[in-house]
Amino acid sequence: MKLNIPIPPEQPHLFSQPLLAECGEAMLPLSTLSERIAVWPMYYKQGYDGTTPEAYLRKSAALRLMQAAERLPDGYRLVVFDGWRSYQVQSSLYERFKQTLLEQGWEDGEALRAELSKFVAVPSTDVQRPSPHLSGGAVDLTIEGPDGWLDMGTDFDDFSERAATRFYENAAPNEKAQTIRDNRRLLYHLMTEAGFVNYPKEWWHYEYGTISWARQTNGQAIYGGILEIVGENS
Questions:
Q1: SS3 136
Q2: pLDDT at 191
Q3: Is the CB of residue 42 less than 8 Å from the CB of residue 82?
Q4: Helices H, strands E: what count in the chain?
Q5: Distance (Å, whole) CA 192 – CA 64
Q6: Is 168 within 8 Å of 184 (Cβ atoms)?
Q7: How many Å is the maximal CA-CA distance in the chain?
Q8: Is this model's pTM higher than 0.90 or not?
């Protein structure tokens, strides 16, 4: 599974606003997609406002996720923490994470907002410039093996530098670090070969069809914002 191939360094991208041509795809519920995909709705379990026990992605992104899952070794499956995220949920996350930083000693201001933006997109109802999860093209996930979730080095939504996808490519060469590195490589190569791109500061976050995806691939975004789910099939 290409565990001998390092996760590549982040490539610089000149700031641009890619063209967005909304394709009109509806969302698919991921818990019904494949036995190789499990939904563990992290924010629902943590009690965030507006969350549900299901996770959704746009149809093409969902089918690509299924392709990635089918390439896992026997006994393994993808575990989805989050997919489409409503404005209400995004706002709830943003405010709770902001409060976490304030409790850590940050002062409210530009520096705090800059730090917060590394991990949580500013909530927006602008369907032409949505946060990634509002588009239905972003997914947060990990891999589960025969003995449970693979060790990825940090928890989901970790704010430390260790959450960066490539952190363990440069870590001290011991057995634990190499295991974490290989686990992250497995997830990275599965997802990128299925057409997704990774957000380099978060090992768990991947996108397809979004504005961020278009910026990384020099393509055209096909997913604008979805303010509510109106159907599960397209």
A1: coil
A2: 98
A3: yes
A4: 6, 8
A5: 10
A6: yes
A7: 49
A8: yes
Q: Which of 222, 214, 16 is nearest to 128 (CA)?
A: 222
Q: How far apart are the first and last CA of the chain?
A: 33
CA 42 → CA 7, 81, 126, distances in Å?
26, 5, 25
Q: Using CA atoms, how far apart are residues 147 and 165, in angstroms rounded to an integer?
A: 23
CA–CA gap between residue 13 and residue 217 (Å, rounded) = 10
Q: Hey, which bits of the chain come out as E strands? A: 27-29, 37-39, 56-58, 77-82, 138-145, 148-149, 197-198, 205-207
The CATH code for residues 27-217 is 3.30.1380.10
**Tell me, what DSSP letter sits at residue 200?**
T
**Residues 182-214 pLDDT 10s:** 999 999 999 999 999 999 999 999 999 999 999
**Rounded CA gap, 173 and 109, in Å?**
39
For all residues of the chain together, what is the average pLDDT? 93
Residue indicated by tokens 């924010």? 43
Angle (CA) 181 54 33, round 5°: 70
Residue 176 neighbours by CB under 8 Å, 6+ apart: 151
Question: Confidence class of residue 166 from pLDDT cuts 50, 70 and 90?
Answer: very high
What whole-number distance in Å separates Cα of residue 40 and Cα of residue 53? Answer: 8
Instruction: Check: CB of residue 72 under 8 Å from CB of residue 35.
Output: no
